[in-house]
Structure prediction request, 222 residues.
Amino acid sequence: PLDGPLAGRHVLVTAGPTHEPIDPVRYIANRSSGMQGFAIAAAAARQGARVTLVSGPVHLPTPPGVERIDVESAREMNDAVRAALPADVAVMVAAVADWRPKDFVETKLKKRGSAPPVLVLTENPDILAGIGADPALRPGLLIGFAAETDDVLRYATDKRRRKGADWIVANDVSFGADGGSVMGGAENTVHIVTADGVEHLPTLPKDQVADAIVERIALALR
Ligand code: C5P
Prediction:
């Protein structure tokens, strides 16, 4: 499949949540299903790109023609992403945990009738910002995602500058009245924030959102 508008291009995609271990049997996670990132990897491969997909723990099949690297924690994802570079485009869709437990406990925490343990957290590396700030690593087109529950466009515009990204794809992940959400759901409503302004896409199935983003990537690289 080395035909198509992205033939000869290397596209790096991150997807899914990260798991941040507490002890051998417990971790901190989030609600990301990985669906949007996997759909983008699949769409890029269909357009002829060589695709590396760095994925957190998800229950999804590897899309055809995609090289998948599985990781668990944010730090593992950071290492895998850096090892997979250089790329022409990086699309950072993963819902990377901002924090991890400061100390990993080597043996299972026990109740022992005493007070519950206090979890002390520490900050994870920001994978997107780290690459955005490093000219030796930065792909020509660097795309981040912003999952917000409020003031979506203001935070996304700010995030674009702060993380050194070219585009931020913003979506509203606030919960609906039925408890349903973008995270884990089949559809997404995104706004593409670039240096030139904002493009609003209609609510679409995630694979169609992916096609729209990949189409714009192909145009930008032309
Ligand atoms: O700051 P926030 O988590 O909202 O930023 C979201 C964007 O940054 C996404 O593209 C996500 O993949 C990326 N990110 C990252 N490393 C982190 C946190 C977020 O690459 N530690």
In short: The first strand starts at residue 10 and ends at 15.
